[in-house]
């Protein structure tokens, strides 16, 4: 009875405050910087500035393929289940790559975007990162778990984008994914070094590839500008 009386009293007080025109304090959401790319400074590595978000349209290139992938705990997932519902940046790498203009560059860009997302409140509700290995023989579940440790152990991870580090059970599972994305990989000559084209892919919530980035276009400012353009498209802006 005492609890009911207290709740009733609070309800009456709230109604009285509304009748008298009092404003009940509510926490205001932290504003997200716009353009989002402003969280990064211009870099001499890129000889252009991204256009204003929403001033252009990203065409639907094709549907991103489905496939079976393994996460850092060894759980199997449908790639569609992971990508549908959020805007995704997808990269294909192999963890032992030593080409500074290859996988390490893609990883560095993802770390930059991941860290900067802390300053973009709420973006983690709409956007995620996916890194998929194209060397499942060496990039085992144990290997990708070790790679992902700085991500999973980050005390601020809850304020940043979700980052899925994935591998596959082997070539039969991997090949349809690579073919569907158009990610070129060639290991015919040197079994230690895998020849490949560096590519990142922007996938919308519906599973359509909306942009493909190669060497020279991996400016984090451009990635965030394209993501902001998709968010504006969704909002009808």
Brief descriptors of the model:
six-stranded mixed sheet, disordered N terminus, alpha+beta, single chain, 237 residues, two-stranded antiparallel ribbon, 6 helices
Shape estimate: globular
Q: Can you summarize the main beta sheet?
A: 6 strands, mixed
SS strand fraction: 15-25%
Helical fraction equals 25-40%
Structural class call reads: alpha+beta
Average residue-wise pLDDT: 87
Termini, distance in Å?
Answer: 52 Å
Number of strands: 10
**Biggest sheet: strands side by side, in what order?**
1-10-9-4-5-6
Order of helices and strands: HEEEHEHEHEHEEEEH
Rg is 22 Å
Q: How many helices in DSSP terms?
A: 6
Low-confidence runs (pLDDT<50, min 5 residues)?
1-15
GO molecular function, one term: metal ion binding
InterPro entries: SCO1/SenC (IPR003782), Thioredoxin-like_sf (IPR036249), Thioredoxin_domain (IPR013766)
Family: Belongs to the SCO1/2 family.
Protein name: SCO family protein
Give the helices and strands, then pairings.
Elements: H1 2-19, E1 62-63, E2 68-70, E3 76-78, H2 79-83, E4 87-93, H3 103-116, E5 127-133, H4 141-152, E6 162-166, H5 171-181, E7 185-186, E8 195-196, E9 200-203, E10 208-213, H6 220-234
Explain what you see.
The protein is an alpha+beta fold. Helix content is 32%, strand content 17%. It contains six helices and ten strands; from the N terminus they run H-E-E-E-H-E-H-E-H-E-H-E-E-E-E-H. It is globular. The N and C termini lie far apart (52 Å). Cu cation binds at residues 97, 103, 196. This is SCO family protein.
């Amino acid at each position: 009875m005492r609890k009911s009386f207290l709740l009733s009293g609070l309800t009456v007080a709230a109604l009285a405050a509304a009748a008298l025109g009092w404003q009940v304090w509510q926490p205001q959401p932290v504003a997200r910087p716009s353009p989002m790319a402003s969280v990064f400074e211009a870099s001499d590595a890129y000889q252009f500035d991204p256009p204003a978000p929403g001033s252009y349209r990203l065409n639907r290139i094709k549907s991103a393929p489905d496939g079976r992938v393994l996460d850092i705990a060894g759980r199997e997932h449908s790639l569609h289940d992971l990508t549908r519902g959020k805007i995704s940046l997808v990269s294909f790498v192999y963890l032992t790559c030593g080409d500074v203009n290859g996988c390490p560059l893609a990883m560095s860009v993802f770390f930059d975007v991941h860290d900067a997302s802390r300053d973009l409140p709420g973006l983690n509700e709409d956007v995620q990162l996916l890194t998929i290995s194209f060397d499942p023989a060496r990039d085992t579940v144990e290997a990708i778990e070790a790679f992902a440790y700085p991500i999973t152990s980050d005390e601020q991870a809850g304020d940043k984008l979700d980052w899925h580090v994935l591998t596959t059970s082997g070539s039969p599972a991997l090949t349809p994914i690579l073919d569907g994305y158009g990610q070129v990989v060639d290991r015919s000559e040197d079994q230690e070094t895998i020849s490949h084209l560096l590519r990142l892919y922007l996938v919308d919530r519906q599973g359509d590839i909306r942009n493909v980035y190669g060497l020279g276009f991996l400016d984090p400012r451009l990635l965030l500008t394209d993501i902001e353009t998709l968010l504006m498209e969704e909002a009808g802006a």
